[in-house]
């Protein structure tokens, strides 16, 4: 190749041949038949979604290639809107529009002729004039056509910056026709506004656009990115020094000396979204939402505690009535242990009570006794839990209504505002006493939402097990409340005899003390040694599909849950699911199936919802079975899952695009299993899981099982796990704010 780059030229033509196309980056070599020169042009460059036979306009510069001769190096390409009926037909039937096949295309063009595209774009309701096209289909076609023409310039631009088509599509979805303006203005906006775009991607875009490395927009974005990442790891704030150090790694040391100033500016701005808390020696930097949630939660807790003190002084608190306790004990058929009595007394005397304890220490029994005591005073407590599964278990163990916290707080779509909690200080909850189970799963933001909606005079009981994995969201609310030393805490520690007969319970407590579990030849807790990944995989399959079901008289899909420390690897969730699906629900002509993104979903599969969907009312962690799949037209596939609610299964239908919300659930991560219980748990623990091998992870996994635990793996991996405490302490200041060391606003 040689010579100076020539001037930019524009060539219009029809794609005759695509000699090379890289799916990843859109790099394409294509031959165009041109009108202008009545000849052929070889165009080379990024042309995402180029289709054979379509008409395109390309802009670029000529370059002579030593071997291939003269080529047009493409800077820009766009689709030429087809104008003749023939061209339109060709375009529509090319497969470029999702859900539109050749037959329908023909029908459309026959009816609307050269105006077809115009009609589709601006008067899609007219498509209903044609037989066989319903409302849904008409909308789908219109959407597809609009997308083809609008999205292409954004796609082109982003792909030339090395951004994947999937992310480009998200950008387009968010900003539509303004996408390019947004990108050129401040690409860092995408980090906050488009899910899936992180600082690195936006930074890459910004560098391509020639934004300077020291631009304040860049440094701000880096700081906020670090804070958001920290929140994903559970921290409510970061010490300033730590924040600056992490941000420096992102922006490079050449410009990092400006970070402290930029942080200061950010904190000064009303809408900067960052708060620097100076109440402690090392300043703590918060994303504003977390700061207010923490400070206001602490204030609310202090008010509760002040109320408690006042009541105590006025001797308003109701004393424990011995006769009533005797009645309750008779009803439950057991004498309450001293700590359990203490808990029952506390709920009558205090405004805030925490009950913690491991499995079998009598938490549920205590809650039941509390409810009985309250009911005798004419109070019906409100019950709730952070997950659907936990709420369901609460209903089962108390025989009373229990909702998820989100449900209780009426989290829903509010016109023009998006998803929000309808219950707050202006529209508080109704009730005198609130009892929340699985409180270790409540994160700081949710806790605040709950506290702000809690009526001023209410009493609150939080029940949970602080040794389990901490909340998925940022914070360590339950521990912080306990550590503040201001709140009444009843620590249940004795394992009741009935529970102690179970090795599951006994071993859970051993693991929690850093000891290896005891195993016996019979009982409800087994350990099978196997350290080789492939063999281990085979062993898990054999246990699930063949050995355990007759032993347990259980259904392999419904009653056995494989829990895994991590997603990836031979003994990771993904691989296990694929194998378990093959063994437990193999392909069959009777069962419809669907291929999607490297996985298969089949009628009969056990699946899990992986995020909260408030419109469908299915929540992260809900598990169900695929009961129907209509996949005749791949693009319009619909899949129905039956979620077992109470007695009745609830049927939820997913469109193709929504399927990313569900995952196979023969195996799930221990993290996802929090708040759930299963008859039988199989838990692989091997060195490959090393990064995840922590005591609280094994403890949480084991305590999910009601009837049987089978650990499979190596003793040495297990012993690493039980000996490693989760060393990283989450950064929060809730406890200090409650105890009054730091007050804040
Ligand atoms: N005061 C008591 N006297 C005798 N047995 C008791 C007492 N309290 C609880 N138990 C028994 O101990 C076992 C465990 O109690 P419970 O289910 O209340 O514990 P838990 O902490 O809720 O356990 P898990 O977290 O495993 O559900 C049950 O069989 C229960 O009947």
TrEMBL record:
Domain AAA+ ATPase, chain residue ranges per copy: 349-500
Domain of life: Bacteria
InterPro entries: AAA+_ATPase, Coronavir_polyprotein_1ab, Hlx-hairpin-Hlx_DNA-bd_motif, P-loop_NTPase, RecD2, RecD2-like_HHH, RecD2_N_OB, RecD2_SH13
Keyword match Manganese: no
Presence of keyword Signal: no
EC identifiers of the protein: 5.6.2.3
Sites where the protein binds ATP: 360-364
SUPFAM superfamilies noted in UniProt: P-loop containing nucleoside triphosphate hydrolases (SSF52540), RuvA domain 2-like (SSF47781)
Residues in Helix-hairpin-helix DNA-binding motif class domain copies: 96-111, 125-144, 189-208
CDD domains assigned: DEXSc_RecD-like, SF1_C_RecD
The reaction(s) this protein catalyses: ATP + H2O = ADP + phosphate + H(+)
Family that this chain belongs to: Belongs to the RecD family. RecD2 subfamily.
Function: DNA-dependent ATPase and ATP-dependent 5'-3' DNA helicase. Has no activity on blunt DNA or DNA with 3'-overhangs, requires at least 10 bases of 5'-ssDNA for helicase activity.
Protein name, as recorded: ATP-dependent RecD2 DNA helicase
Organism: Tumebacillus lipolyticus
